[in-house]
Amino acid sequence: MMKKLCILCILLLLLIISGCSSNDSSDISDSDLKKAQAIAVTNADGTILTTITDQDAIDDFVTALQLDDWHLSEQPKNAQIIGSFGFTQEKTIHFNETDNDGKLYDIAQLYLYDTPIVDLNLLGFQLTFTIPDTAYDTLINYLQ
Questions:
Q1: Rounded to an integer, what distance in angstroms lies between the CA atom of residue 73 and that of residue 8?
Q2: Could you tell me if 136 and 142 are in contact, meaning their C-beta atoms sit under 8 angstroms apart?
Q3: 65 vs 61: CA distance, rounded Å
Q4: Which terminal Cβ of the chain has fewer Cβ within 10 Å, N or C?
Q5: 108 with 122: CB under 8 angstroms?
Q6: 51, 38 in Cβ contact below 8 A?
Q7: Are 131 and 65 in contact (CB under 8 A)?
Q8: Which residues contact 93 (CB under 8 A, 6 or more apart)?
Q9: Are 30 and 10 in contact (CB under 8 A)?
Q10: Which residues pair with residue 72 across a beta bridge?
């Protein structure tokens, strides 16, 4: 119950950041993260390995995260960051605005450790989760 509540709070924060609401609220976790327009894949030394911009590839990435199976966790003392995934999107056009500036802005940052642990940074908050092995393997593959 607590895990779902925390994930729901995070996703609601993503919704607020994005400034848009989804017409399909049946899977809010997917709909919010899939609003990203780019995901920058970065290795531990800060080198950008790739940037995912294709919407189908972003959808596949978010689906592979298996957010429903994440569990709040504590970070092991000796865990090392092996990569990160930065979610970005354009600013939302508000009433009386005709165009955005075309820049992408950070909406979330996901840090992957050398164990199936991730940190999610959002709005200055950091939460640590244990993720399923299959999601971990998928993220590792993006870093290779």
A1: 16
A2: no
A3: 7
A4: N
A5: yes
A6: yes
A7: yes
A8: 99, 100
A9: no
A10: 129
